[in-house]
Design brief:
alpha+beta, 5-stranded antiparallel beta sheet, 5 strands
Amino acid sequence: MYAQLRETADELAGVLWREHTVYRERGGGVVIRGEHVRRWISLAPTGGKDRALLRAGRILDGGTTAPARTEVVVDLTAGTAELAAVCRGLLADVAAAAETAPGPSRAGRPGKQEKPGRAARAARPGRRPRRERHTSPGSWFVLLCVAGVLGAWLYSLFGGYPY
């Protein structure tokens, strides 16, 4: 199945993009990366004969890949032109999703809204920044258990047996 996926991916890559990289992924599928368009396409086996799972996604800054935005099961016996049309549709969906997705908010955490007045309060002169706890209660418990075991060991060495 891998040979068929690789062959199909090579043909698709040549039709879709002039600049591309085709490589094998861990799950036995094949990935086509278009660095210049910042998109990727993946062909993975589905267990059925002549069928593959076609997924598409974005390439993020730094070269890492974002999870697939869209996916569809395709018939590999279809011609390259039909598969390329499906790929173009998936890539258009990925591009549309990337444009409508909200940008990251404060500290890169999406969905987290900053409280009103927070920036003004933090910028006031004369106030010390609030300290946060560094040692959790679980860590204190572990330290107390270690101290107890150490104390019991020392007691057994020096004070537990009358010599």
